[in-house]
Sequence to fold (1174 residues):
Amino acid sequence: MLEQIEKIRVEATEAIVDASTSAALEELRVKYLGRKAELTQILRGISQLPPEDRGPVGGAANKARKELEALIEQSAERLDAAELEAKLVADRVDVTMPGAPPRPVGHQHLITRTTRLIEDIMVGLGYEVAEGPEIEHDYYNFTALNHPVGHPARQLQDTFYIQSHPDVLLRTHTSPMQIRAMETHGPPIFIVIPGKVYRRDSDATHSPMFHQMEGLAIAEGLTLADLQGTLLAMSRALFGDTREVRLRPHYFPFTEPSVEVDVSCFQCEGTGVLADGSRCNLCKGQGWIEILGAGMVDPNVLGFVKEMGYDPEKVQGFAYGLGIERVAMLRHDVPDLRRFFDNDVRMLEQFS
Amino acid sequence: MRVPYSWLREYCDPGLPIEELADRLVMTGTEVERIDVVGPPSPDNFVIGKVTEAVQHPDADRLRVCTVDVGEGGARTIVCGAPNVGAGQTVAVALPGARMPGGDKLRKAKLRGVASEGMILAADEIEVGEDHDGIMVLDDALSAGTPLADVIPLAEPVLEIEVTPNRSDCFGVHGIAREVHAVTGADLGPDPWADDAPAEGEGQASDFASVTIEVPDLCPRFTARVFRDVKIGPSPLWLRERLAAAGQRPISNVVDITNYVMLLTAQPLHAYDLDKLPGGELIVRTAREGEKMTTLDGVERELDPEIVLVCDRDRPSGIGGVMGGQVSEVSDETTSLLLEAANWNGPNILQTSRRLSLRSEASARFEKQLHPDLTMRAQAVASKLIVELCGATMVPGTIDVAAPAPEPRTLRLRGSRVTSILGMEIPQADQVAYLERQGFAVEVDGEDLLATVPADRYYDVTREIDLIEEVGRLHGFDRHLPTTLPRVGEGKVGRLNRTQRLRRRAEDELRDLGFDQIVGWSFNNPGEAGRLRTCEPDPRAEPILVANPLSDEGAAMRTTLIGSLLDVAARNLSRGAEAVSLFEAGAVYLRGTPPETGGPLAGDFPGDTPAPVTEPHRYGALAVGPLIPRSWRGGSEPADFFALKGVLEALAASLGCPPLEFEPTAEPFLHPGRGAAVAVGGAPLGWLGEIHPLVCRTWDIDAAVGFEIDAAPLLAAATLGEELFEDVTTFPAALRDLAVVVDSDTSAATVRAAVLAGGGELLRAAKVFDLYEGPQLAEGKKSLALALEFRAADRTLTDEEVDAARASIEAELTKIGGELRA
Fold:
């Protein structure tokens, strides 16, 4: 019996050491240690043996079993490692193939980005944001902004009117919201008004639909110098810390004095000349770029909201109107206003 | 407004290079668009010549070989093609080396074998007119060799000025001269109307003509003078040159004089052939309904009763302040002249010129409202020229029919107010100078000034604030204005409000979900409703129409975002895009009063009248093709209903909205079996679905899926920023799966609702994770599998509790005909 055990042990040991796959090893484990295995049968039959044999046979069989178990475990570890190694080699890829596209992220429209940029600058200066309707009443778009009926300034903005409503139009500027805001909110008021506006005009620098950002500040003692400071702060945030602004007197019906505002050119640093000596194409050699119209809010305009506390002898302030596309065109070198509404995805995807 | 520099300097010479003057004008409020140069770029090599001989060219019928004395250097041979050239003429000559307008250099040349050493000039060749019928024949008093520039300006710089509508005075060269005087301080010469023409002969103007004004509010003043023995002919060269440089075509002396005086004084004039006015009568009245007349431009125009006419005894002669008519037009045969300088009502002129689509130099000035006093200035200047240049005699007297003149206007300018508006101090002496130079009469009253407004500025400067602008701009914002920042808000923090923050979040989420943002046109073709298969009374089929669109493509305000999205998708696909995922955040425009009104901020019209239109802000998305692009590992499926449903649910979840509700819907532009009405908390949001193949076809798209929802109810349901902590870790959840067989037409939402009802408070989540229909089930049945999560906040659930909940769920499912699968 003892010899038989030894024979099993030797035979099994050899087979286990020779096993080259996990599957073969598993077969050996069943063959030598499973329920029907010879060694198992011996251990199970111990009670049938003469008492004097029971001790040595049991001990030898148990020892062999333990030894084989340990050996199998050892081999399993070895085989696992070898097999993993082989798998890793087989799994090698061409790392230069293109990556699989992730679920794509879309793109923010440049108008949205620019609008938010200006809003955030003005919020940083303490302003709030207000919006108003695009289909507007003549009163808000013109009359209360000091463009009485028959005033030639109404012609400055060629207007779309709504059929069968002679007093209703597509707002030509974001300024009507000045009145709406002041009708509901007494001074002091510091707001910006982004939104779509409409004029009957279409070429590379005019679109029948475009976007404006209105600024309105009314409080005690605001001055034209404050307007200049505010626009300087905004211009530097938009176009660079070394920018300067200049105010040129102009005419708008709803501001007095009125100004057009130029910012020093950020491409040629206001010199009008590029590094290679050629004329700056951005400012056309002027050194300055016109960016917006502004002025001190006309007392007549405040007169329309006097009952809300806007007494022109007590409070005063300024307003400005900025073309959002104009800012985006300058900042991102877009040549034609109409491109913003073409929505070609190849353009959209240039701006995240 | 084109202002030839030589003409300007006749009244005020700033002694500056024109570029420097232009800069100062720009920085004080006069917009100089550009500086143009009229005529040759240089006056060199242009001289006066005397034609001493002109003989036929031996080899060319149309050419003459001339001998021309050009002073120094002696006689030259010049070949000339002009029919009017002849010996004895004094002419303008360009010698070899002269630079012609446009820059070409004139060279010696052989013309049909004869050497020519220069060119005898026609008016158009040096841009002093359009005449090319013959050479210019000049005054014989000029001696040969005189530089031509001594006679007419060559290389004339011209300021092109864009005049703002408030500055009617700057529509005249003299007004610009006064502005130059104000800006630079250079001397201003005497007013050109300071002296008048001498009158001669018997009688009075009123013996020859009469003026009756029936509408004095529309024609506050009408002045007329009468001239006899008028000889119509071409104007002298200097006058033609000035008009040409100012952009007016020279015509004949009388017409040129009226144009010249208008360009000088900003007051338009009109000349009538007096002999063509029956009885010399002029009547100013409004047109009769349906009345017609032919204006000078040869167009017959239909008039309306708000249009003012100047009529003769029988019929309309001209449209007052806008354009004359053909019946009394000055012609070569005219010998008696009636010269009108009138004043008109600005708004009425503006309205007339808009209604007739007829803008003229005159209407452009009158519509700004001129002061009645300007009429007599223009009469004085024009009379002198008519007497001088047309050999006419002026009949004594002026017919002057006038309403009472506007009261002189004196305004107080507070010194303190100047500083408090501008934020800079301007010394009082400077303020006085700035105003006086502009023609104001100024009186000092302590710190204040009392300024009387001149006639030219009467309708522009009406208040103290206008004076502040005048002194401020001349002081120079660029030179003196400080840069300060106001104290903003008085303790308030500038920030976006909650709606604005949520809107940004929603836009960002749609972008992060893979959609490109577009900005579509607010207007479109009215035919879009038909392409979307909507029809009345669907409000989307009745768009708000634009009364005066640029084209049909912009004639209707959009009622949907999906139309804009389909337009953009189709355009991109036609340009080669394989797939597009687009979204827009923007307004649509619908008829009818907004659901919620309340004051100006809510869009009400004046007087708290609700607006007749409503502009809901919306989110729309559209996908054509897969959401994830194709790659070398294969492509994903084209986006379908469930792909966009996932996007929409993710958008709502990102805002912290409760789960959206979906029900089948029958939008006309959606696939009838793959469209849903979307709601949140019972409030309708919009639709989601696959676009109807017939709609896709009209946009030339194979298949598309999208949604369009109102922002307001979505944002109202948002809880973003208001979330509270829920403990999900202290006590473990019990997870159970459950499969239920129901009729095929029982919706997943119905099953889920039954499960949630049965599960009670302990059931925290129930997700549908599988759908089976097939041979293992009876016909007309389907199986749904749900993953359930049971949890309590205060204890670990026992098996008994979970089993009880499950039993209750089973009971609820039985009510809807469901049966649990083993």
User: Anything to note?
Assistant: The two ends of chain A are 83 Å apart (CA to CA). Chain A touches chain B through 95 residues (CB under 8 Å). The mean pLDDT of chain A is 92. Chain A is about 40% helix and 20% strand.
